[in-house]
Amino acid sequence: MHFINKYNNYINFYFDYYSISWLDFxxxxxxxxxxSCLLVIICYFIAEHNLYYEKISGYECGFDPFSxxxxxxxxxxxxxxxxxxxxxxxxIYFFPWVSSLLFIDLSGFYYMYIFFLMLLLGFFIExxxxxxxx
Length: 134
Hints:
- This protein has helices at residues 2-17, 22-46, 53-56, 76-91, 94-99, 106-128.
- The protein is mainly α.
- The relative contact order is 0.05.
């Protein structure tokens, strides 16, 4: 219990010491907005605007488009992208867990360990079914 109180006092001191008012926050946002607009305007005037055929043509992996975009293609591209999104979104849960590792007890550690094992099990099932191979 002393361990938790020690870190709670540290966090309270941190927020009290570094607290900012809303006026400071909106001033900071206004400065960021002005700098961003200034950079966009400067880049617009510095960049060259000479257009030619190769520059305005459609880009398709370095070669000219050879067919209509509505032609059927292999569904495995969709499967790989869906698998990537699933594993990528599940890995986002690791960042809050790592940042709060000092404040959770062993049950939080075990729950995340079980979550990781389930994620690993799903990965091996997809590997076994050859979903990742073309």
